[in-house]
Fold each of these.
Amino acid sequence: MVKRIRIAVIGARSSGKSYLLYDMIHAFELLGYHPEELPLSYPHSSFGAYFYDTFNNATGGMRGTERYACRPESHYGAHLRHGRFGCRLAVDFLNIPGEVFDLSNTHLRDYFELKRHIERKGKGLFWLQEWRSPSGHLLRLIVPPGFDITQHTPVKALARHRHGNYLQWENIASELQEGQYTLQRQKTVSGRYLLHHLTELYTDSVLLTLEQCWSMITQQGHLDLDDYKANQVLHYFYPLHFCEEATDIIICDKLTDPHSAGSLTEAVASYMDLTKRHNPNVYLAFRGADLLLGSYAPFSDSSQAPQLARKPSLRNTLYSDVVSLLAPLLRTSQPAPEGLYLPDEWRRHILQSTGTGIGNAFWHLLNASVSHNWLGRQFHQLRGTKSVFELSSAPDSYLPPHVYLTSTPIDSHLRIYTSDPDDVTRFYCTEGSHIQSFTQTIRQGNSQHLCFGSYQLLTDVLLQNGLYPSGLRNRPPLLKYAQSKL
C-alpha cells in the first residue's frame, strides 16, 4: 500500500519556502526514505529537478520564488521507500506565493463559485486530449468541443513569458510541434473529472477552455469573466485548487521580515472555512533560528557534533533544548539565557504570527483545520486530548502545536552559515582562514544537513498522516506537544 502526502508550502517572498523544501527533501533521507525511479507517466517534476530549478550555480545559493504560471511541471514529487520498514510513500509539494491569498474573501468566494459551476457540468463540454512525444512524455490537454489545435499557427513563447504567464493556443501548438507530440486519443469528460485531475492536466489549456466556454459554464451565474481575470482568480486557480487537495499546509514566516504571517494565516483559515469539506493538517515554520542561537554553547563547542549524523534523537534534544529556553520568553521581556538571542521585535513578530487567542493568526488557522463535526468530537474525546480552545487559553501556552523554528544554514558539525551580504540567497561560514559555502560543503559530502526545525517538522507531517518514524519514544515533552494530534 502506498501512502500519499500532498504538501502546500505558502509564504511571502523571501519567507524561506524554497529553503524549507530544500531541507525537508534532505530530512526524508535522514528519516530513512529514499527515492524510487519515477514512471514516464508521472505528471510532476522530480525532487532532483527541484534542486536544478531552484539552485543558483553562479552564486551557490537558492533562487527565490517569483510570481509564476503554475503547471504540473511546477509541481515536484517523488515515490519514496523506507529502507528498513519497506513503507512506500508518494509525496508531492507545491511552492505557493503568499499573494495567492492576498485576495479578499469576495475573490476567494468567486473561486468557489466558479468551481461549483464547473462541477455541475456533465460530459460534452470538456474534451480531454492526450498527446505523446517520441520519448514517451505525455501532455493532457482540456479543449472545447470540436476544437482543432492545428488550426492555430504555432508561435514560440519566450521562456520568461512562459514562466510568468499562461500561454495562448498558438503557443501550445508550438510546444506540441517542437516536442513532436502526436495525438493519441481524446474523449469527453465531466467537470468533476477536470477538477479531480487538475494537477495532471496542462493548466494553460484548462484556463483557455474555461474562458472560451465561459457563458456555457456559468449560465445564470452572473459571473463576469473580465472581473475573474482582473482579480487574478483564474491565474491562481491551480494553487487555490491544490490547497483543497493538500493533506498538509505549511505557512512560512521570516523572523526578520517587518510584516508577520498573521494576516496570511487568517486568509488561509478563511479559505478553509469556505471549503466546508477538507481539513488538512497545518503548520507554521519560522525562518531565522540561526539568528536566535547567538553564542549558544553547543554551537560554540562542536566536539559532539559527529554523533548527530548517527543518532537522530540528539537532533531532537538539541532542537527541544533551544525552543524550551526561548518559548517562555515570548510572555516576558527578560533577556534570553544561555547565549540565546531574542530581541523584542522578533518576540512581537512571533506573537503576531501565532496569535494570542483562538480567534486570530495561527491559532485561528489551527482551529479551522480541526474537524468540529460529531465524528471529530468523538475522536477527540477518545484520545483524551485538549481542544484547540483549551490549549490557546492555557496560561503556559507559549507556542501553539505544530509551530517550528527552522534554519537551513546549519550543518551536522553545528557550523552556522550566515547570509552573504552581496547575495541573500547564498550562505557561508568562516573557519580559520577558509570561507565555506553551505551548499558546496553539503554537496561535497564534508557534512550533513542538520535540518534544524525542518527535521522535526517533517516528523510531525509523517505523524499526522499516520506514519511513525523511529525515535519517537525518546522525544522530549516539548516535541510531543508540538507534534500532538488535535
Amino acid sequence: MSIGKFCFRLVLVLFLLSAEIANAQRNSNVLGNNGLARGGCRELAVRIEDYMGTAIMGATVVPDGNALPVTSDSNGIARLSCNAGEGFLPKVNVTAQGYVPTTATLAPESGRGYEIRMNRAEPSSRLSGSTINISELPRDIQKKSSYLQEEAAKALAATKYDSAEVLLIEAQKLTPSSALVMNNLGIVAMHRKDLDAAEEYFKKASQSAPGIGEIKGNFGLILWMQHHEEESYSALLKASSLGYESTAGNYILGVVGLGKGEYKESVKRLRKVPSDQFPYRDLFLSIALRKCGNSKAAEESYLNFRQRNPAPFIVSLLE
C-alpha cells in the first residue's frame, strides 16, 4: 500500500472517530443549574428566529466539524454541546422548512445571546426541481403534514427518534415529494448510526430538491462516511456551488482534490479547515502547496504537522 493511500485511509478513520467522539460528548454532557456541563464546559444555546423575532421550531443546525445535526425546540432554541474543551465552532449551517438556508458565524447579539435570523423562502423555490403530485396540494393535506413535521421537530429536539420517525413517515405519506421530510428522516437515521438508511433518505431529498445546497451537502457527507469518495466529492462540489459551506465538506474536497491533482483548489479548501480538528490537514496542505510551487509555505505547514503529530513512525514513513 502506498504512503499516500495509507494516509488517506488513516484520515478517513480519524474523521469517523471524530464524529463518534462528538456524538458521545453530546450525549454525555449533562447541564447543571448554572448552564455548565460536567467538566466545566458550557453549553451554547442558539435561538433560531425569523426577522419578526418569531421562534422557528424544527430548524436543523449543523455546527462545522460535527457529523450530527441539532434540532431547535418549540422556543427556537438549538443546544450545541461542548467539543472536548476546544471551545465552540464559529460557524453553523441552518435549514428550516419554508426558509432560505443560511450559514452564520456565531456572535452574541448585543449581549442578548446567540441568535440566527432566517428569511422566508418564496413558495416556488422551496423544493426546487421537485414534482408535486396533485394529491399533495389541498390545504388540509398541507396543514396536516406541517403539523406532523412540527411534532416530529419536537420529538427530535427531545431526542425521541422513534417518535420522530413515526411522525415523519406519516408526513411523507401525505406529502411524498417533500425534500425536507426526507432530509429529516435522514437525520433520524444518522442519529441511529444507520448510514445505509441515511444515505437513501439524503439521496431522495437531494433528487427532490437539487437546488438546496445543505441537503446536497448532507448527501455528500454521508457518502464519505460510506467510503464512496468519488461520489462524495461530486456531491460536495455541487453543494458548494449552491452556497453550502462546512469544515468537514472543505476537508473532504481538499483531500480528494489533492488526489485528483487539483492542487490550487485543494489549497483553497484545506486553508479553511482548522488543524486542531483534523490533525492531518497540515500534512495534506503542505503537499498541495509544494505541488503549487510554494515551497516556503509548504515547509511551514509540514513543520506544523510534525509539531502537532510527533509520532516517530509516521515521520519515518514520510522522510
Amino acid sequence: MKKKIYIILFTFLGILLQLLIHGLVETWYIGFLIGNFPKYSFGFSWSQWFTIHHIGTVVLFIAGVLFGFWQGKFWWKRIYEKN
C-alpha cells in the first residue's frame, strides 16, 4: 500500500511539473505573439495556435504522468528495496 501511494504521489508531482513548464513556456511565447504576431506566428492563425495549444496540453500531460510514474518506480526501488 505504501508503494502505491508513493508512486501515485510521484505521478502527481510529474503532473505539477508539466503544468509549471507548460505555463512558463506559454507565457513566454504568447508574449512574443502579442508583441509581433506576423513575425512569430510561423504563418499560423490564432485558431491554429489554439489547436496547437490543445494538442500540446495533452502531450505534456501524458509526458508528466509517464515521467512521474517512472520516477516513482525508480526512486522506490533505489531507496526502499535492498539490492
Amino acid sequence: MAVGRLRSRVSLSGVLLAAVLAAAGVAEFRLHWVESLLGAYLASTNAERPESGLIWEQGRRTQSALSVVEQLAGDREAQQRRARNAASLGELLALLAPGQAVMLSAEHFRELYQKLPPALAHELLSPFELLRLAGEGRWSRTYLERSSDGLMIYLLEPGNHVLRQFRLSDAPLALAARRSEGVERTLEQIAAFRGRIYPAERFFAALSELGEEERRGVLPQPERLLGVAAQIVRVGLSDEALGGFVELGFEIRTPSGPRVLSLPGQDWAVWRLRARMEGRREAGGPSSPLSPADARGP
C-alpha cells in the first residue's frame, strides 16, 4: 500500500515537472524570455567585464586600422593640397616623395614654368612649343610624378591622353630652388665658393666682354640682381656643375650685415667667364682670386 502511494506521488511529480518544463519551453519559444534575461544581465554587467577575447581583439584591430587609414588619407590630402599650392617646381619637388604624384591645371603649370630660369625652361620645353599646345586647346591638365632623381611631366588632353611627356632632373631644379633673398653669411662661409671669390667689379667687367649669348648663359635672369636694393661687393663661383648649371653667389652688404644671393648659371658660360677673370688676374693682379684687401671687402 505504501509502495503504491509512493509510485503515485513520483508519477504525479514527474507529470508536474514535465508540465512545467513544457510550459517553460513554449514560453521561451514564443517570448525568448531566457535570452532577454541573459541579455539584460550581460548589459548590466558589461562595464565590469574585461575587454578580452577574440571579438574584442578583432574590434581593436579594426579600429586601429581604420585610424591609420584615416590618418594616411588625411596626410596624403594635406600633401596634395600643399603640392597644388606650390609656388615653384623646386618647391613642388621638395614636397613629393619618390613615387608620389600631383595633378595640376594647365594654367598652374604654365605659371610654374614661367618662374624657371629661362635656360632651364628652354631646356625643359621650348616656350614656343608650350604656346602651340596651349593655343590648340587640347592641353587641359598636367600630371607630375616624382621619380628618384627628378620629375616626370605629362601634358594631358581631357581624356587623359598624353600630348607630351618629358623629364626634369632634380639637380638643376634643386639648384634653381636654392635661390633666395639672401642667406645671412659671407661667401667664405659657404664651402662651394671658397677659393673662387672675386671682386664684383672684376666679375661685371669680364661679363661685359662676353657675347650676348654668353652673358645670358652666365646670368639667365639678370633682373634678379637689378632688384637687389644694396651694392653687390663680391661674387663667388661654385666649382660643381649640376645638370649643366653652376651656382653663383652674390654677396651684398646690408645694414643688418652681409647676405649672399644665389643664382644658377649655365656651366659652359660660367667657365668662359672664369677663364676671362683669371686672365685679368694673371695680366696684373694678385696670385689668388682675391687680394687681401679684396677678401676683407669694402
